Amino acid sequence: MGLSASVPIKNSIHQFKVNDARGKEVDLSTYKGKVLLVVNVASKCGFTDVNYTQLTELYNKYKDKDFEILAFPCNQFLSQEPGSSEDVKEFACTKYKAEYPVFQKVKVNGPNAAPLYQFLRASKPSIYGTRIKWNFTKFLVDKDGKVLARYGTMTKPLSIENDIQKALGEV
C-alpha cells in the first residue's frame, strides 16, 4: 500500500521548515526565486578551510543575484562539529566572514536524518546511494526548489561556479 493521503509528498525544498542556529523556525519558502547551495558543514574537518573560504567567495560574488547558501552543521562524521549550533555560526561568521545563514545542527544520514536531508538525498542519489558520505556535501537547488545537482566533499565550491551561473540564467 502507498503513502496515506495525510502524508504530503514534498517535491520542493520550499515545502520544508528548519530551525536557525538559535532554534527559531525558518520557512524555506522564503527562498523561492533564489538558487540555493545547501551544504552540511563541520568546523574540525580537513576540508573546512577550503570549503568555508570558497563558500564565502561564492556568496559574496552572487548574493545580489538571487543566490543563497544554506549551511547545516552536522556532527555525524567523526564528531567534527562538536560545538553548539550557535558556536558553529560564530565560528563561520568570525573566521570565514560567512554572511549566509547557518542553521541548527542536523543529522544527514540514518533514521533520525532531518526531513530536509531525506528529501535532498532522495532527490539526487550519488554513487554511494542516497547516503551522504562526508562533510561538505553540496546540493544545488534551482529557483523553484528542485535539486539540480549533488557534489561530494572533494568538489571545491568554486569548481561548481559555472553550474551556479547556469542556474541563475547567466550562461
How are the SSEs ordered, and which strands pair?
Elements: E1 17-19, E2 25-27, E3 35-41, H1 48-62, E4 67-73, H2 85-95, H3 115-123, E5 138-141, E6 147-151, H4 161-168
Parallel strand pairs: 3-4
Antiparallel strand pairs: 1-2, 3-5, 5-6
Order of helices and strands: EEEHEHHEEH
Mean pLDDT: 90
CA-CA gap between termini: 45 Å
Secondary structural class:
alpha+beta
Question: Would you identify the CATH architecture?
Answer: 3-Layer(aba) Sandwich
Approximate helicity band: 25-40%
Range of strand content: 15-25%
Please count the beta strands (DSSP E, at least 2 residues each).
6
Number of domains: 1
Q: Which residue ranges are poorly predicted, with pLDDT under 50 across at least 5 consecutive positions?
A: 1-7
| CATH class (first level) name | Alpha Beta
Per DSSP, the total helix count is 4
Description of the structure:
This protein has 171 residues and is α+β, with helices and mostly antiparallel strands. The protein has one domain (15-168): Glutaredoxin (3-Layer(aba) Sandwich), CATH 3.40.30. 25% of the residues lie in helices and 17% in strands. The protein has four helices and six strands. The strands form two sheets. Strands 4-3-5-6 form a four-stranded mixed beta sheet, with helices on one face. The longest helix is centred in the N-terminal third of the chain and has 15 residues, at 48-62. The chain is globular, with a radius of gyration of 15 Å. The termini are far apart. The model is unreliable at 1-7 (pLDDT under 50).
